[in-house]
Amino acid sequence: MDNVQLLISGLANGCVYGLIALGFVLIYKATEAVNFAQGDFMMLGAFVTIGLTNTEYMGLPFWMALPISIGIMAGLGYLLDRLVIRRMFGQSQTAVVILTIALGFVIRFVAGLIWGHEPQTLQNPLAGREIAFGGLVLGMEDVAVIVVTVLLTGSLFLFFSRTKLGLAMQGASQNQLAAYYMGIPVKRVQGFIWALAGAVAAIAGILFAAKGSVDPSTGLLGIKAFAAAVIGGFGSLPGALAGGLIVGVIEPFASRYIAAGYSQIAPYALLLAVLVFRPHGLFSQVRVKKV
Amino acid sequence: MRIVFKTDYMQDIRPWKDRYQLSLYLILLAVVFAAPWVLDVFYLGELTNVLIWAIAGMGLMVLTGHTGQASLGHAAFLAFGCYSNVILLEAGVPFILAFPLAGVITGIIGALVAIPALRLHGIYLAIFTLAMSILVDDIIVLTEPWSGGVSGKYIAGIDLFGLTIDRWGTPMLFYWLVLAVTVIVTLGYINLLRSPLGRSFIAVRDSEVSAQAMGVDIARTKTISFGLSCMVTGWAGAFMGLFAGAFNNETFSVVISIELLMMIVIGGLGSIHGAFFGAIIIGFLPQFLSIAKEYVGAVFGGSTVAIPGLEFGIFGMILIAFILFEPMGIYGRWLKIRTFFELFPFYRKDMFKRQKSYLKTERLR
Questions:
Q1: CB-based contacts of A188: which residues, under 8 Å, 6+ apart?
Q2: Alpha-carbon distance B50 to B239, whole Å?
Q3: H/E stretch holding A136
Q4: Which of A105, A230, A290 sits opposite B127 (nearest CB)?
Q5: If DSSP codes are grouped into helix, strand and coil, which group holds residue B171?
Q6: Residue of A118, A92, A255 lying closest to B358 (CA atoms)
Q7: Which of A143-157, B156-170, B181-195, B276-290 has the lowest mean pLDDT?
């Protein structure tokens, strides 16, 4: 029973990692760039929601603040693409990586200026409620996290594989120039995907802040989400979620059963192992290397 | 406008373009050699710090700037160099042996790391090295009997040729030691770039496929590049340990790795000058900010407030500005300015324009 409890809390944590990883994968899938600032985006989303709902700030009702903060983050994502990333069009991948790392520093700094460096929690209607069945006690927040993540991943997966816009995004990432010739508005598609990634980051941030406390350095969690995205294979949405769940579940079990000191290594050791033996992740999408 | 008129093939291979350029660098060398007599102890320390960062920057530049392999984990190799140097010194090995050995050990570790990393490209390599950098913190804690773990290690002065060299006691000697190593590494780097090996590094950076077609062994080239890069970084790490005097598992964190990569990007990827320019920015930015803060406090009244994270925020903004407006870094901007004057009035705006590459993925779905 103890293990089941560990498993559930691991799954809930893993879902948050999965959601951040989802943001990485979205942007990677559509623009072939990696947004190292996704974790900081999530932190910013959490703080925007805290700023809107918590009584010491604006004190809006929770359900009203939710769409507003998702909208704000989507807008920020779009603006970021419009003002910064779009100018990088045609430059190397590494340049975008370094740019987004720098962006993460700036976001952390700005969030620290506005909301301070004290850990804060989101006041929400789910806090403190519990569901009990068959001897298990589950926090409402954990259940909410798992349900929202599964729904979101599923709908994004369907969006990419079924809709015209989703296919256009894949086309734009596979060959920018060819996509242009086929009449895909590549730049607009990229703007849209950054907005989407911003919205996903806001949702991840809200769920994270509801479960625990956030402070400006929470964004460094993005590194774990990174491990998740790599383990799942960059470019696969269900893979990102699966990777997140693997990392999330490994953590509590490792800290329980492996000697202290070795336990926090577990997710990274797994990451290194995956990179060495299956360099493109467990759900690999690269089959043949073409010249 | 200066014209270099070449009459001999050796002129193409020589490290310097003409006597004028050579004399400029000799003057620079004389100035930095004489610096300890001019500067006070504080600024001498800062200059030493800049030189140490420049060595580390050159280490990363070989790998990232010239072989095109972005590494986000070089703090790990700084740590390896620092710890192996100190552990050798404590075992009674004289500094003159321990210091080069520390670099060689780090280089071998780096080459070993390169073997699994060879299969990885671009972002995957960056993530691999990032994970390694995170792990080093834990590894240092776990190997406490040798590394001292969380409580860390201390190093006082070292003995070299009968002199005691200490960062606090004899800052001038320490500065000259660092300067000597910097000069040796720089000369080695210049020579490397003239050699077939250095050319094959650049070939691998520009196109792996074409390099392979020209007969360059990609795996061997990348491994050597990793090894050389880590060796130089290890030396920088050994100096950082001596400079700081005390260090533990948190000294060489991931942030240092990221800082190092950003430093060479700001300085200018793919040039030795870039490592130095970047090191100057990294070294003097904190001082500059604290002076600026005092100045602002004095002008507008009120006390000087400490803003946590300010340094990194400003650093990030500088970096973003550089990547957007001057992707070739400070050295790239300097080249443009110099060309403007050398070719005056024939300079055109799109002289340095680079071809854009459009993206193609390797994924099938």
A1: none
A2: 11
A3: strand A136-139
A4: A230
A5: helix
A6: A92
A7: B156-170
- The residue type of A8 is I
Mutate to test the interface with B, among A38, A109, A189, A288 (most CBs of B within 10 A): A109
**Cβ-based burial of A164 (10 A; exposed 0-12, middle 13-18, buried ≥19):** exposed
Q: Which of A90, A105, A235 sits opposite B356 (nearest CB)?
A: A90
What confidence score (pLDDT) does residue B22 get?
86
Tokens of B156: 């006082």
- Tell if the CB–CB gap between B360 and A223 is shorter than 8 Å: no
Q: How far apart are CA A196 and CA A35, in angstroms?
A: 13
- The span from the first CA to the last CA of chain B, in angstroms, equals 55
The residue with tokens 């800062």 is B46
ipTM of the complex: 0.80
Backbone angles phi, psi at B159, to 5 degrees: -105, 130
B72 and B229 Cβ atoms separated by less than 8 Å: no
Contacts of B293 (CB under 8 A, 6+ apart): B304
Length of chain A: 291
Q: Is A175 helix (H, G, I), strand (E, B) or coil?
A: strand
The DSSP code for B14 is: S
Backbone angles phi, psi at A230, to 5 degrees: -70, -40
For residue A263, the model assigns a pLDDT of 73
Q: How far is residue A41's CA from residue A20's CA, in Å, rounded to a whole number? A: 9
Q: Do residue A108 and residue B313 have CB atoms under 8 angstroms apart? A: yes
CA distance B319 to chain A (A): 6
**Which tens digits make up the pLDDT trace of B252-281?**
888 888 888 888 888 888 888 889 999 998
- Interatomic CA distance for residues B122 and B168, integer angstroms: 42
With a cut of 50, say whether residue B47 has pLDDT above it: yes
Q: Where do the DSSP E strands lie in chain B?
A: 153-154, 158-160, 163-165, 246-247
Return the H-helix or E-strand segment holding A263: none
- C-alpha B295 chain-centroid distance: 31
Helix, strand, or coil (residue B154): strand
For domain B39-351, the CATH architecture is Orthogonal Bundle (1.10)
* Per-domain boundaries in chain A: 2-218
Kindly indicate the confidence band of residue A289, based on its pLDDT and cuts at 50, 70 and 90.
very low
Listed by start position, the domains of chain B span 1-38, 39-351
Query: Mean pLDDT across the stretch B330-337?
Result: 85
Q: Helices marked H in B251-309 — which ranges?
A: 254-267, 272-300
Backbone angles phi, psi at B208, to 5 degrees: -65, -40
